[in-house]
Amino acid sequence: MSDLALGRRLMDRLEALSRFSDDAEGLTRLYLSPSHRRAADALAGWMRDAGMDVRMDALGTLIGRYAGSANNNRALIVGSHIDTVRNAGKYDGALGVLAAVAAVEALARRGERLPLDIEVVAFGDEEGVRFPSTLRGSRGLAGTLDPAALDERDAAGVSVREALAAFGCDPAPDGARSSTSPLAFVEVHIEQGPVLERAGRPVGIVTAINGARRLSVAVQGHAGHAGTSPMAMRRDSLTAAAEMILAVERIAKETRDVVATVGVVEALPGAVNVIPGETRFTIDARAPDDAARDAVVSGIETAIEGIAARRGLKARIEATHSAPATTCDAGLIVALDASVRASGYEPLHLPSGAGHDAMAMAALCPVAMLFVRCAGGISHHPAEAITLEDADASMRVLLQFLRSYNAS
Ligand code: HGY
Ligand code: MN
Ligand code: MN
């Protein structure tokens, strides 16, 4: 029976990291923000205290390296992201980074060296809230980042390149490639769904990660006086967008396992007595199968164009992000299964509806994910929560995996 010391260490660190926010109320830590900088500085200190050499790469990813006993320059990469959505929970992303730090700390405390290096990574841009696309850090490390992603601008008009320079990073044109040929990438992450809780399991092993696509839509109508413009003569961009948004919901509902979400809507000029001349909204569509997802996206695009034409408006649709569905490595799943069993639990396999950095890292090396039960499956919300016992369970499984990982 564990004394929960590992879990307690992890929970304490999660609490400490959650204090780095750009909002006085709630947790919001966006890519390259002041709170990202403060969180990365604190994390760098914890990594050094755990015996790691620490560096920050060209895209703001913090990388701690714990050398192994053999000088073979082969590393197991373990980590996740430290950026959050707005008004976020404390565990999405941070859990995977801090569990990796706590695992290395537990090894270092015993002077234990594994037969391979461990690299702990803290990506800064997995949520993709500040800029239109996402996975910049993990794509940079994997060497697959499109340089055009550095020219995207946030709502204030600041480009990624400018924000990186202000953050103290010098973005290499093709993104930073990992310094080693990694053996695998393993990510511990809250499930962000209800399956583990319903099955009464503390941890689960991810089989595959849904593919995602993001679009931004700008509906161009004609602004007008709310009092003098007859209804029949209006070219109202917001009511047109409303019909389009309902079409997004209807079309996604028609295809099994596909989900689509409109998360941001902006009506301009945004005055109570002005008919909105332009309305912008985002679409996030996902599925375990890329073809099904793409069929739904093209159905949505056709519906948007049809509604705009019928109403005499224009709609501009821009693709802002795409990440294919990702299969986790079969060998790593077997190794995680064995680690879960050796830690006293019954393995449970499940897919991930949420996106993760592992999707980008799959271009560099085999990937695997260990899910941790979260209360009510709630995530992207301050009520996100895990228990001390489940934090401890995830730590023991991760340590068991690291110690038993066979690099052959
Ligand atoms: O949106 C997602 O699926 C992830 O939480 N970034
Ligand atoms: Mn996440
Ligand atoms: Mn998230």
Mean pLDDT across residues: 95
What is the count of β-strands? 16
The succession of helices and strands, N to C, reads: HHEEEHEHHEHEEEHEEEEHEEHEHEH
Briefly note the structural class of the backbone.
Answer: alpha+beta
Counting H and I runs of at least 4 residues, what is the number of helices? Answer: 11
Bound molecules: (2S)-amino(hydroxy)ethanoic acid, manganese (II) ion
CATH topology of the largest domain, anyone? Aminopeptidase
Query: Unreliable runs, pLDDT <50, ≥5 residues?
Result: none
CATH domain class name of the largest domain: Alpha Beta
Q: What is the fourth-level CATH superfamily of the largest domain?
A: Zn peptidases
Shape: elongated
Euclidean distance between termini CA atoms: 32 Å
Largest sheet: 9 strands, mixed
What does this structure look like?
The chain is of the alpha+beta class. It folds into two domains: 286 residues, Aminopeptidase, CATH 3.40.630.10; 113 residues, 2-Layer Sandwich (Alpha-Beta Plaits), CATH 3.30.70.360. Helix content is 34%, strand content 22%. The protein has eleven helices and 16 strands. Strands 1, 2, 3, 4, 5, 6, 14, 15 and 16 form a nine-stranded mixed sheet that branches. β3, α3 and β4 form a beta-alpha-beta unit. α1 packs across α3, α1 crosses α11 and α9 crosses α11. The longest helix is centred in the last third of the chain and has 22 residues. It is elongated. The protein starts with a helix and ends with a helix.
